[in-house]
Amino acid sequence: xxxxxxxxxxxxxxxxxxxxxxxxxxxxxxxxxxxxxxxxxxxxxxxxxxxxxxxxxxxxxxxxxxxxxxxxxxxxxxxxxxxxxxxxxxxxxxxxxxxxxxxxxxxxxxxxxxxxxxxxxxxxxxxxxxxxxxxxxxxxxxxxxxxxxxxxxxxxxxxxxxxxxxxxxxxxxxxxxxxxxxxxxxxxxxxxxxxxxxxxxxxxxxx
Length: 207
Prior knowledge:
By secondary structure, the chain is α/β, with parallel strands linked by helices. The chain has one domain (12-200): Peptidyl-tRNA hydrolase (Rossmann fold). The chain has helices at residues 31-42, 89-99, 132-141, 161-169, 176-194; strands spanning 12-16, 49-51, 54-61, 74-81, 106-112, 120-124, 147-152. Strands 2-3-4-1-5-7-6 form a 7-stranded mixed β-sheet, sandwiched between helices. Strand 2 (49-51) and strand 3 (54-61) form a beta hairpin. Helix 1 crosses helix 5 (176-194) and helix 2 (89-99) packs across helix 3. The protein is globular and about 50 Å long.
């Protein structure tokens, strides 16, 4: 496992899952993108660059706004794959290789229809729940032993694949302030993990 402050380029690679393109913005399936962008804002990582077939930010952060808080510095990379959801692994795998990040130091932010809207949980490894982004990551990384922040977006009252697809790819049905609160709490959970305070995340691992 990489140690904080060690010789690897980053201590954590945070990956937000979603689809590129304005038509997918502010949809449940892009919740991972929304949370990743909130972390970029909090950590003041500035302008991203095109790298690893995605948008990529890199920097050294500390707890607290503007990186002026307490605790040791943490080197982070934030990646938003631009490959579309079902090919996310083709972005994450080369990033992981170049940045020399062990799988347990990859933190994936993704929507989860099997959790009620507003529920936020984290897990290390575990099943893929039919999520195409997670399946691509497992396929390209070889194992599913990466961390996840599971962002509950709920599901429609149907198991019809077309209805479910329309639900996750359509605009949020919840009020804007409810979505903003969900993004805030999921971002808080991601920060707690990155800064070593997993006990502050409401749900237990693998919950």
